[in-house]
Design goal:
Blueprint lengths: L1 H16 L5 H47 L1 H7 L9 E13 L2 E12 L2 E2 L1 H23 L8 E12 L3 E12 L1 E12 L8 H4 L6 H19 L25 E4 L5 E5 L12 E5 L1 H4 L2
Helix pairs in contact: 2-3
Organism: Lacrimispora celerecrescens
Protein name: DUF3298 domain-containing protein
InterPro entries: DUF3298 (IPR021729), PdaC (IPR025303), PdaC/RsiV-like_sf (IPR037126)
Length: 289
């Protein structure tokens, strides 16, 4: 009985496998099989990509950990070229004093490029700050203010930070009866690490002093014509030694967001004190930059 049932099942299985499959069904089945194969390959590829991404992320994490943990590795990584040097400016120290009628607060910044302190520039910045401090201490020692008040405030801000240049602006205000604002800008070539003067920048431009000076005079005239409250030491009708004649090439400058050179003058340098420290943006067709 059991043997007969088993033979019957085998015959049924044979008949099932011998059933003719219609052509349309065969094509549809083949297409389904091909889709299944493609889907399987796609899933495998996604898994592979995911594993690769995880491996890359792990490798990057390992590099970061090694750089933070090992000075040797960090130093080696500093030699890897980057697109545009990374500059950082922090407060190195602050000179503060309050003595009767005298007070001072002078922030002294420090510049680093690609995590390396710029020793040459920082020395120049500190020398400039020390001059401010020495003048303040001279005033205190001689009690120059008498019954009045004398104060010095000096702060800084970054006015340019592009791929090529970093410009650090130091603003200093001295108050003694009235105030006087001075500006010192250190424009640094990120590639060389050197402070660049206007003379250095324009050394290949013939007669740049005349071209820039004439443009500044034109701006002065236009501003005074448009606004009666503005006044510059130019075409005043007075024969004065303060009359603006031309730049020297040693003026403080920086680049604005449009890549134009901006020249800064101290208070009283080219205009009356009420005008404060003034700036002039020089068009590119004048500078050639």
């Amino acid at each position: 009985m059991e043997h007969s049932d088993e033979e019957k099942l085998l015959r049924m299985k044979d008949r099932y496998h011998n059933i003719p499959v219609p052509d349309a069904a065969r094509v549809s089945l083949a297409a389904g099989i091909e889709r299944a194969k493609k889907e399987k390959r796609r899933i495998q590829m996604m898994k592979m990509t995911k594993r690769t991404g995880i491996t890359a992320a792990a490798a990057m994490a390992a590099i970061v950990i090694m750089a933070n943990a090992s000075p040797v590795t960090a130093n080696a990584m500093e030699e890897i070229p980057v697109l545009g040097a990374i500059a950082k400016v922090v407060t190195f120290r602050t000179f503060e004093d309050a003595n009767n009628n005298y007070e001072a607060k002078i922030d002294i910044p420090k510049v680093s490029i690609n995590e390396k302190d710029n020793v040459k520039v920082n020395r120049s910045i500190e020398e400039y700050a020390n001059q401010l401090i020495a003048e303040y201490e001279k005033q205190v020692a001689g009690d120059q203010a008498g019954d009045g008040h004398y104060s010095v405030t000096s702060s800084y801000d970054v006015v340019t930070d592009n791929d090529k240049y970093l410009s650090l602006r130091i603003n200093t205000t001295v108050v003694m009866a009235s105030g006087a604002e001075s500006v010192k800008i250190f424009t640094i070539d990120k590639e060389t690490g050197n402070v660049v003067s206007l003379k250095d920048l324009m050394k290949d431009k013939a007669d740049y002093i005349t071209a820039i000076s004439d443009n500044i005079k034109k701006q002065m005239e236009e501003q005074m014509a448009a606004d009666d409250s503005k006044m510059y030491f130019y075409n005043t009708g007075e024969d004065s030694v303060d009359e603006f004649k031309q730049i020297t090439g040693d003026e403080s400058f920086y680049f604005n967001a449009n890549g134009e050179i901006v020249i800064a003058f101290d208070e009283y340098e080219v205009a009356p004190g009420y005008m404060g420290a003034v700036e002039f943006t020089i068009p590119k067709d004048v500078t050639g930059f």
